[in-house]
Amino acid sequence: MSSTGTAWTQRFHPRPDAPVRLVCLPHAGGAASYFHPVSAALAPDIDVLAIQYPGRQNRRTEPPLTTVEDLADGVTAAIQPFTDRPLALFGHSLGALIAYETARRLTQAGTPPLTLIASGRRAPSRHRDENVHQRPDAGILAEIRSLGGTDARLLDDPEIQAMVLPAVRADYQAVETYRHPEGPTLTSPVLALVGDNDHLATLDEVRDWKRHTTGAFDLTTYPGGHFYLNDHAPAVIAAIRDHLATLTP
């Protein structure tokens, strides 16, 4: 496997000459490796940069960050050198919020993203009171199991629990304490993707993404819950490819 990049970015199939770059931001508890299959499927036409948050995998010795703002600051700084080509953002769940705040920062810097693809997340302005990050470890593990995105056998391993729980708790703290701040509205088009049975992001809440951009907005639903994309990976990857193709000369 070939992987290059900074601490924040993993490029599993580097294609620096590709006409468009796609930055992929993982969900709470997720890591850059989640997007290895996406990178393989989109190569060689799209150069995929998978984001690695502090506190996991090759960054496991670093303290995890606990706010969306700090995470977005880190992502923005890391991907700024890659804005010499059209650059799109894709984020799932927590990753969608970080992608949104990153898009705002890029827009303010004069390098707005080609598009924002927000998956499995209600609009930034749609707040719910949630407290998963304040639960004991068993409560956090129960929440992860209920979402179905992680192999339950891994969660039963005490060593793996000790390794991943600090980062997972920090990620939940980031997403649950986020409040949409005043700031620029995006000019980039937004594509929202969501499972039709996702209790964390109803269709009504997801449709409000259109309030956060002056560009085009579209919504695509798939059968399933919060991790619908695991069951419909080929269709989701095709949708991403088609969406980027409509925006790239």
Q: Layout of SSEs?
A:
Elements lengths: L8 E2 L9 E6 L10 H7 L3 E6 L16 H12 L7 E6 L1 H15 L7 E4 L17 H11 L4 H4 L2 H20 L12 E6 L7 H5 L9 E6 L5 H4 L1 H15 L2
Parallel strand pairs: 2-3, 2-4, 4-5, 5-6, 6-7
Antiparallel strand pairs: 1-3
Write up this protein.
InterPro entries: AB_hydrolase_fold, TEII, TesA-like, Thioesterase. This is Alpha/beta fold hydrolase. Keywords: Hydrolase. The chain is of the alpha/beta class. It has one domain (9-247): Rossmann fold, CATH 3.40.50.1820. The protein contains 9 helices and 7 strands; from the N terminus they run E-E-H-E-H-E-H-E-H-H-H-E-H-E-H-H. Strands 1-3-2-4-5-6-7 form a 7-stranded mixed beta sheet, sandwiched between helices. Strand 2 (20-25), helix 1 and strand 3 form a beta-alpha-beta unit. The mean pLDDT is 92.
